[in-house]
Write the structure tokens for this entry.
Amino acid sequence: MNAIAKKESLQIEFVNAPFDSALAGLSQCQYDAAISAITITDERKKSMLFSDPYFAAGLIVIVNISNTDIRSKDDLGGKKVGAMSGTTGAFEAQKILNVQYSPYDTIDEAFLELMNGHIDAVITDNPLAISFVGKNPTKVKTVGSVFTNENYGVAVCNKQPALLAKINQGLAAVKSDGEIDQLVKKWLVNSQ
């Protein structure tokens, strides 16, 4: 967002809020925009605008390194599964038959509960999973493959089409000059 703002001379003030609270506030235009690995969905498009996609992601399952029972999403029935509230990971966890779903305000809380053995698995976006596993390779692992196709976008108050246009122009510039690739390499690839 800083790179986009710089390209378009936008003045921004970051407000840290829980994911589901940020989206609720954005849908009521309490915020002008939000960026936080927000998947572009048809449901969300009903209450907010979205920039062009800036990252392709998908959901994956993370378990403790010693877990051999869970090999993919298909093995989660009857298990305790955590995800961050309001995310596509939470929606997918709740769809699984007989899952014991545990919501968390942050993904870090879910990961901590997993490492402490209070839940069996976490469903989250693969970039977050890659980063977390990269920092804790002796404690957790991903299992199975990415099981959804999702795109992240900057969510914008639906009364701000001019802001959306500026964000899309800045995003296009960030993509064309290779800056977004550098950010992915810095924050995802090198974090493993």
Remarks:
- Residues 2-55+152-184 form a domain with the D-Maltodextrin-Binding Protein; domain 2 fold (CATH 3.40.190.10).
- The CA atoms of residues 80 and 118 lie 8 Å apart.
